[in-house]
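Archive maintenance. Older records in this collection stored only the sequence; we are now back-filling the structure field for every entry so that each record is complete. The fields below show one back-filled record exactly as it appears after the update. Entries are processed alphabetically, and Knottins-like domain-containing protein is next in the queue.

ARCHIVE ENTRY
Title: Knottins-like domain-containing protein
Organism field: Oryza brachyantha
Length field: 75
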Amino acid sequence: MESSRKFFPAIAVLLLLIVATQLAPTEARDCETASSKFTGMCVIAANCEHLCKAEGFLGGACRGFRRRCMCSTMC
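Back-filled structure field:
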């Protein structure tokens, strides 16, 4: 009887972890890829975002030292 009392808290925590992971919403990650149509140095982020949306992505921004137009989408 006493051995079951020792394992009860461990089993309860394990069950709570299983339930919590099943109920937790999964977060989608953002993936970035270089725009295939943007040429030159990316200076104005609005231009990059507009072009990325025209290419079918969710958005875009100027990134990195070389200032490339990077389009974003959900992975």
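Update note: Residues 2-74 form a domain with the Defensin A-like fold (CATH 3.30.30.10). Residues 8 and 14 are 10 Å apart (CA to CA).
Entry marked complete.
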